[in-house]
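Anyone? Bumping this.
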Amino acid sequence: MSENKEEEDPRINGIKTKIRVVPDFPKKGIMFQDITTVLLDPKAFKDTIDLFVERYRDKNISVVAGIEARGFLFGPPIALAIGAKFVPLRKPKKLPGETIFEEYELEYGSDRLEMHVGAVETGDRALVVDDLIATGGTLCAAINLLERVGAEVVECACVIELPELKGRQKLKGKPLCMLVEYR
Amino acid sequence: MFAVENGLQGDPRLQAISDAIRVIPHFPKTGIMFQDITTLLLDPVAFKHVVDIFVDRYKHMNISLVAGVEARGFIFGSPIALAIGAKFVPLRKPGKLPGRVISEEYELEYGSDRLEMSVEAVKSHERAIVIDDLVATGGTLSASILLLERGGAEVVECACVVGLPIFKGQCRLKGKPLYVLVEPNQLDELTF
């Protein structure tokens, strides 16, 4: 995947061709990477999940944390396939129980990511999943939440990376696995 | 229709699923006993039971489209779609889906909200199911059915993990059958 450029898995190109780029969404100048078109192709969707599952099934991952909402599309099937817990990381006030939160920067202002208290424990080995990494702000908040409760974040996994935004540098030294780059 | 009424009476998986759901009283407001499925997701065995039961039901029904209601419907709908080889279509709050969408309004207790679907999601005559974590009034599922039908799909069934007891028997939404695994838990049934 992202580390073996010499021999890219043939499934990756199939996934890449299914991603739809929508210009000027949600605002002018942004070339939005739409993964819903990948979900419309059962083979491409399955290949996406299989690539991650193959990578993580023997890494003793006990928690897959998915970032609302598109992380909820990829995280749960990965968690189920590797026998890990799935933990949703959500926007404020969505989770009903006691939560902890981490703030992160937006272009204008800030937002928060929340996690249920007790969902993740010291010693859990965690994977963070989202559809895309841009600036890395949300993933950084996710890493912080997991580390605060004593989990070890093993890796972040995204379908798409926008490398020019240098999100990799915001991951507190954690490795990133991605399938498709968009420049 | 509940799973116990349709072949799964005595299936221990249903008890395991019910036991894994936490009740949070007075969320999001006083009087509501919120059925928290996040504790189910922390139990890989129970989570897998949910997906297995739905997959066993739908895998031979020629379903080509699984629609999931944002956001908790994504968590259950996505693995079901993958397992039965169907496409997954997210039904989302306004403004989240890029490209051309159709939208359907539905009633809340106070006011209303909208659900959107991408126009490219559905091909004519596709057989679809709709997944959400819980059905209460049926407003969101009804809006989902209408969106899919407007797109040309045939909605075969709606399926939820938790449903109010009024959905026993032949209760239908917009004429479509409903399949539910468990009833809501009461507060004293689980401490977390």
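Late reply, but here is one note on the structure posted above: The helical segments of chain B are 12-19, 38-41, 44-58, 72-84, 139-150.
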